[in-house]
Input
Amino acid sequence: MPHKFRGPLSADMARGEVRWEHSQAGWHISTSQFAVRNAHANALTDLDLTLPGGDNSPVLKLHSKFRDAVLTEAWRYLPTDKLPEKVLAWLDAMPLAGRAPSGEFVFEGATRNFPFRDGSGEFRISFPVEGMRLHYAPGWPDFENLSADIEFKNAGLTGIVRSAQLNGLKVTNSRAQFVDFKNGELTIDGHAAGDLGDALGYLQKTPVVDSLGSLFADLRGHGPVSAKVNLLLPVKDMDQRKVLVTTDIRDGTLQLANTRHTLEQVAGTLEVRDRSVTANDITAKYLGGLAHIDLMPEVGTNRKQLDNVIHVRAQTPLAALRRDFDVPDVVDVDGSVDWRGTMRIPSDGSDDDAARRPMILRINSSLRGAAVNLPEPLAKTASDTRVLRVEVQWPDSSNALVRANYGTDVRSQLSFRREDFGWAFDRGGVRFGESDARLPLGKGLEVHGSVARLDLSDWLALHSDGNAPADTTRRPLSDYLRSVELTIGDFHVFGMQFPQVNGSLVAGDKAWSVSVDGPKAHGTVVVPFEFASADPLTIDMTRLTLDAEEGTASAAEETESQPDPKPWPNVRVSVGDFTAFGKHLGAATAELNRIPDGLSLDSFTAKSPTHELTGTGTWTNPPTGQRGALKLKLDSTDLKQTLQDLGYGPGLAAKHGVVSADVTFPGAPSSTLLGRLNGTVRVDIESGQLLNVQPGAGRVFGLLSIATLPRRLSLDFSDLTDKGFAFDSIHGDFTLENGDAYTKNLLLKGPAAEIGMVGRTGLASHDYDQTVVVTGSFGNALPAAGLLAGGPAIGAAMLLFSQIFKEPLKGIARGYYRITGPWENPIVQRLESSDAKKTENALHMVEKKKEKG
Output
């Protein structure tokens, strides 16, 4: 035989008749039903071999039927001199296990013409296989439990697969073929069905996964799929392989490993072609909304390779986004958004250039339909449009770089690293304004730029509610925020307003140190990382002016926006020059400490050259709602200056005055506090004058409303001079009810007259409803210029005066007056003299009856 075999081709048993004949044509050898048996197979063979003389080729006619062949021993029968080395190696490695129950071997033709590419003869080995394990390519999963019909014919090989298992997929109606071993190209055309997870697993175990990227390698899934597999595997050079896998997915689920990002109800056709993935309009449910997904190859940045690019169009409910991305509850967003995303995956991870190119994700959305209920400058309503652009780059599997633009004035650059529990923030920069954000060198978050408006109380509320429980992986804000440098055009905190503030924040070991500088504030605020710790929030200012916010909020709006005192830390305050809501208080100190339901004001002192204000109180938030309590005492040695400092105008001058208050209020302390007070106030003033004042001066619980009497009524008191109406004392009590101050015993005593007042002062409504009686001393006459008659309320007021003021108001001349209307321009009316006389006589009769009985 002119062909080489790697044998030995031995037989344990050979039985039959061999005939040898010689003629001029040469030798002729033949057998009939010659039986051969060894450990590898049993065979019956008919052979007809002619060995001509000279250079003529032997002619072989061989027909053999065999059974129970061991496929792992097939290498012994391969003609090594007729097969390329790499093809021979592939054939050696192909049958890993299994037997051929029967088969047929045919060789007809001149042996020199083998393997009969010209059709001059036939070489054929055909046999069925059952339970075979087939290794068809290096790095590719093996066929398991293969049932097929195999045929070696001339220079090629064909296998028709009836059934097989391929990584859990059921393979049917498939074909594998070498058209010619010389070319060394194996083609596989197959059909498979099974679970999406097995289909993904198959591709992830092949060399194809290297070109599809780590994202594809991390995909998991389940659900019914069917697939067509078309492979061209050049065994001489497997890098030149051609791959086409077309997969139909119906109601499948895809998930990225180690995340909760899941595509549900996936439907469509996915095509893997060589080093790229293609799909048109795959539909799926993602984050509770409908997503449309297209995958296509595009030219990469190096212009040499095709990148795999995923395009997504989706609508997402923000509630699902918060859930799957572990967004803290304090980040309140609702509604839904339409967005578009693009993921670019470098085409070949083994290529040096591709390895340097990161995987890139880009997301764009107008955010219309999304309400971002965060504090300014990040807040937006659902109807507003504020474009969000996000770019994420993965330079490697353990690092990610995020660039995000929110509108035109918020830019960020953030770096994340992969931890055992997922991705964790490492460092980043946020820029407010038109400049781009930069990535800082150190760890943590740095914030820079300028904003038009900022409400610190809203951000502190997020901080106080944002500390994660110890048993979670969520990190507190102090682990992120390292420094802030901001210029704020309109700065607000708890209902107070500061214009043009420059602020800087630096993180220390236990607290942030905030430096503030502006026309109304200069100093330092130290904010502890943990509000629940014993470390206080310290306010140390050389000057501080608190102003109410512009505009008046409704009661419902103020209740909804008021801060909660329970999460607050202990507070220490020291201000060199303190002004609050138009009231200049001087140097102020305060100490507030945590109590179970809120804060306790253990001490408060405000001093100026003319007054000292001291007090204590509480601010709590029990289940019944927020409430506060204050005990205050104001002691003045120059009442005129004190009133001017407190913004009430110079309506009253006195050498000494004391005002004591014991009040409660619902809600939080703010600029609207006067309109919510309940409780009592006591006024004691000695030795002073009612000054000739302009409209608007009489505001202190209505006390100074009587200062309008000299100006409006031309009272003919002998000591009414340019310096005002002198008095010896003023005493009175007030009851506060829901922002109204009521008095029944306010009494002014002077050398020329005594003035008593009852009625209401509206602290919230800024108006008066009072009745005043003026009694002159002997020799003084009260004017009779009043034009409007009193009504029943006047009679009741006069009776009240008789009972309360009967001892001090017994002068000879007496007049009654009504004071109504707004603080800025009160209306003073004197009662008709006849009505006043009748009423006065009636009061005297009542007094006499009481004296007798």
Q: What stands out?
A: The longest strand covers residues 95-110. Residues 310 and 593 are 56 Å apart (CA to CA). The chain has a mean pLDDT of 79.
